[in-house]
Amino acid sequence: MPAHVLVLGGTTEARELAAALAAHPGVRVTSSLAGRVSRPGALAGRVRIGGFGGADGMAAWIRDHHVTAVVDATHPFARSVTRNAAEATRATGIPLVVLRRPGWQPGPGDRWHLVASQTAAAGLLPELGRRVFLTTGRLGLAAYAHLTDLHFVLRSVEPPQPPMPPRLTALLARGPFTVPEETALLREHRIDVLVTKDSGGTATAAKLTAARHLGLPVVVVRRPPLPDGVSAVPDVPSALALLDLPAQ
Ligand code: NAP
């Protein structure tokens, strides 16, 4: 039976990994998506969509579909699915590779405020400005709903839903974004402060450069920790190497 790799996806790296795995003749690849985005785009190999029903459900899926290895290439802030993958691979005795793009690092001139949660980010905002560019996604919006005096410009892939702050302009867009685009956006909306998760990667990093050029403060929400005993590799070639599959 050929190897069957389950890639837990929803990221650019997961898409690249699925393509690299699909190029290996002896490997079957299934990408799994949560189903949050209505038009996820084409992926190499098979695709399944929707939750597994927790760690037990994922373990059952692994057994039923003869999965031989799991790569968790989910977003650094997708905490539950990562915990479930650790439990499910332990229970089924197959290898788990966690692929996480490295986080962003502040450079000279950056005015970063590192916080542990979106609640903490919301707590800082009133002292940093009145017009906020929020790039933390539509799902964490409730943390800012009580800030009725501030104006938020939210950028997200899907439209936001309540609870959310009353003064909010929603911009629906998907990266990558360039520094000139981000600079123009910050100027056009007269932004005082930017809020971001430490997602890492290049597709959405331009806003940090634009904020630096304009001297704006940035509230950066730190990543949640990986489960105990789990470590991550930073890129697709390292993930392939751990699976014993050289890049082709
Ligand atoms: P989460 O809190 O870890 O996941 C919540 C539940 O959604 C999981 O328990 C699981 O349901 C299901 N799920 C999540 N990822 C899945 C996947 N790849 N395949 C099948 N089921 C999945 O994650 P989240 O923050 O809601 O993110 C959901 C997805 O969006 C992830 O795949 C992630 O890569 C992507 N994403 C997240 C962010 C972010 O900022 N959080 C940003 C960009 C993309 P069951 O327990 O029922 O299995």
TrEMBL record:
Keywords: Cobalamin biosynthesis, Oxidoreductase. Its EC number is 1.3.1.106. Pathway: Cofactor biosynthesis; adenosylcobalamin biosynthesis. GO terms for molecular function: oxidoreductase activity. The keyword Hydrolase does not apply. This is Cobalt-precorrin-6A reductase. InterPro entries: Precorrin-6x_reduct. The keyword Oxidoreductase applies. It comes from Streptomyces thermoviolaceus subsp. thermoviolaceus.
